[in-house]
Amino acid sequence: MTNLDHTTRRTFLSLTGGAATLVIVRPVDATTAMLSAAIRNVVGEANVRTGKVKLDIPPLVENGNTVPMTVSVTSPMTAGEYVKSIHVFNEKNPQPNVGNFYLGPRAGRAQISTRIRLADSQKVTAIARLSDDTFWSATADVVVTLAACTEEAI
Amino acid sequence: MPSALINVPKKAKRGDIIEIKTLMSHIMETGYRHTASGDVVPRDIITSFTCRFNGTEVFRADLFPAIAANPFITFFTTVTESGKFEFEWIGDKGFSETAQASITVE
């Protein structure tokens, strides 16, 4: 009798556990695929390395509707060596792109700031394209208490 | 009524790197929200921002719905001569706004 009880409890737990994983994993996979597709769109077949890029974004934000963000890239910004563009992506918004920013050697300093929307706690990635067509990236985790895009319009 | 806020230093020394701050009032409707009756609120965003100095493009950005309402963008540029910055925002539903700022370089 006790044996039977244990079996049913275990079966129940494994079943529900399995179902929960299925439900949760699917959409995450879908957005991760969208994110990598969006990144491939920009970098093509090139290798993206970590480094040179600094992504300043608060690790914990109360309001996902307006999150301040600064991206800076280590570069001398001379005619021979400069940052061509900075691309920002997110993981879980309905759309993976956040913004593309095009600079040139005369920018003097490879740094941009803006305010973004985050629909959920997620990773934000910034990728910089340098004048030698190499790609560098930085990623930050952001926890969002009040998500953007979810409230109803009036 | 759209309105722009531009922050450009009035004066700079030749070769200085200056910071430019821009803000354009705009709802930046994402196109992912629904009304109480379930209809999708159509997308209405600024899609492109450009800054030119004396006619030459110095900075450009493509914006997506993930940019917060009233897009605030700051960037840097090197000034070599006196002149005029022209800013242009283009978006959905025929949105098109411009603004200008002059700088004296000594």
TrEMBL record, chain A:
<dbReference type="InterPro" id="IPR006311">
    <property type="entry name" value="TAT_signal"/>
</dbReference>
<dbReference type="InterPro" id="IPR032711">
    <property type="entry name" value="SoxY"/>
</dbReference>
<feature type="domain" description="Ig-like SoxY">
    <location>
        <begin position="40"/>
        <end position="149"/>
    </location>
</feature>
<dbReference type="InterPro" id="IPR016568">
    <property type="entry name" value="Sulphur_oxidation_SoxY"/>
</dbReference>
<protein>
    <submittedName>
        <fullName>SoxY-related AACIE arm protein</fullName>
    </submittedName>
</protein>
<dbReference type="InterPro" id="IPR038162">
    <property type="entry name" value="SoxY_sf"/>
</dbReference>
<dbReference type="InterPro" id="IPR030997">
    <property type="entry name" value="SoxY_para_1"/>
</dbReference>
<dbReference type="Pfam" id="PF13501">
    <property type="entry name" value="SoxY"/>
</dbReference>
Automatic annotation (TrEMBL), chain B:
<dbReference type="InterPro" id="IPR014756">
    <property type="entry name" value="Ig_E-set"/>
</dbReference>
<feature type="domain" description="Sulphur oxidation protein SoxZ">
    <location>
        <begin position="9"/>
        <end position="101"/>
    </location>
</feature>
<dbReference type="InterPro" id="IPR014880">
    <property type="entry name" value="SoxZ_dom"/>
</dbReference>
<dbReference type="InterPro" id="IPR030995">
    <property type="entry name" value="SoxZ"/>
</dbReference>
<protein>
    <submittedName>
        <fullName>Thiosulfate oxidation carrier complex protein SoxZ</fullName>
    </submittedName>
</protein>
<dbReference type="Pfam" id="PF08770">
    <property type="entry name" value="SoxZ"/>
</dbReference>
<dbReference type="InterPro" id="IPR013783">
    <property type="entry name" value="Ig-like_fold"/>
</dbReference>
